[in-house]
Specification:
- The protein is an alpha/beta fold.
- The chain folds into 2 domains: 215 residues, Rossmann fold, CATH 3.40.50.720; 78 residues, UDP-galactose 4-epimerase, domain 1 (Alpha-Beta Complex).
- It contains 11 helices and 13 strands.
- It has a 7-stranded parallel beta sheet with strand order 3-2-1-4-5-6-11, with helices on both faces. A two-stranded parallel sheet has the order 7-10.
- Helix 7 crosses helix 9.
- The longest helix is centred in the middle third of the chain and has 20 residues.
Length: 327
């Protein structure tokens, strides 16, 4: 079976590609290798994949609909699509909004349009985000909550992707599953995330900017737990249960145990073996105070049961980071 993985050089994409290859799948990976963060990290992830039998890679920007359509025409054997490519980052979206529309709206639409023409396609799973919950104050966040109050351009584009997916599932009976990821972390992670920046500055003896006095809570979810959820979703395409229903499902993939940013920092300090120097900063535009996933549906339908506590997960990340930086 051939699985197309978009964003294969990304954090979640590279981990999931490896898990698929370990299961004997053939993986066709695409990525534009942009410079939002250091492309050398993306290339290193690809290098680790390229030695595994069954992996092929094509550098391609999903924001180019013609290139996407051509790729799909060249590979009619694709049976599953794991669409993880996106422009990430809440704060960056405030200063570069068009980049997010190009990737997360136009790019998402290009994938949907090409996918609905694939003769062998059985399921398309795509990445959404906990950011779609926006200004919601009800906790924990549930897939049945209204999500029409985004607080960042990033969140708005990810919600747009969900709506486009609902439309394509309805129009073409295309089996689609969207996964709302909650603050994924771990080895080979993203340099724009807090856990990476905190670790880098603690080990380098530099001060850390702590927003809102650390009075923020995040549902930190370890990468191995997320990969297990992604693979489970990929193998369970939704079906139209009755006439008029739509084969489109949304699931939260989170740890369902939100931790305070202060506690998160304390664990990092322990694993780094030194204290952090802190500079207090106010809450930043586009950020939310707390994320907390209700994973009842994912547990029921996908058997999703995250099991990695932050003490263990952050320990693995810090160990990897030291090796990566030669510390």
């Amino acid at each position: 079976m051939t699985v197309l993985v978009t964003g294969a050089a990304g954090f979640i994409g590279s981990h999931t590609s490896r898990a698929l290859l370990d299961r004997g799948r053939s993986v066709l990976g695409i990525d534009n290798l942009n410079s939002y963060y250091d492309p050398a990290l993306k290339r290193a992830r690809l290098t680790a994949l390229e030695g595994v039998p069954g992996f092929r890679f094509r550098q391609l920007d999903i924001g180019d609909p013609e290139a996407v359509a051509a790729l799909f025409r060249e590979h009619p054997e694709i049976e599953q699509v794991l669409h993880l490519a996106a422009q990430a980052g809440v704060r960056y979206s405030l200063s570069h909004p068009f980049t997010y529309v190009d990737s997360n709206v136009t790019g998402h639409l290009a994938i949907l349009e090409a996918a609905q023409r694939l003769p062998a396609l059985t399921h398309l799973v795509y990445a959404s985000s906990s950011s779609v919950y926006g200004a919601n104050t009800k906790q924990p966040f549930s897939e049945t909550d209204r999500v029409d109050s985004p607080v960042s351009v990033y969140a708005a584009t990810k919600r747009a992707g969900e709506l486009l997916s609902e439309t394509y599932a309805r129009l073409f009976e295309l089996p689609l599953t969207g996964l709302r990821f909650f603050t994924v972390y771990g080895p080979w992670g993203r340099p724009d995330m807090a856990y990476w920046g905190f670790t880098e500055k603690i080990l380098g003896g530099q001060p850390i900017e702590l927003f809102n006095g650390g009075d923020m809570r995040r549902d930190f979810t370890y990468i191995d737990d997320v990969v297990a959820g992604v693979l489970a979703a990929l193998e369970r395409p939704p079906a139209a249960a009755e006439p008029g229903s739509v084969p489109h499902r949304l699931y939260n993939l989170g740890n369902s145990r939100p931790e305070s940013l202060r506690r998160f920092l304390e664990v990092l300090e322990q694993h780094c073996g030194r204290p952090a120097t802190i500079i207090e900063k106010p809450m930043q535009p586009g950020e939310v105070k707390e994320t907390y996933a209700d994973i009842t549906a994912a547990e029921r339908d996908l058997g999703f049961r995250p099991s990695t506590p932050i003490d263990e997960g952050l320990g693995r990340f810090v160990a990897w980071f030291k090796e990566w930086r030669g510390l």
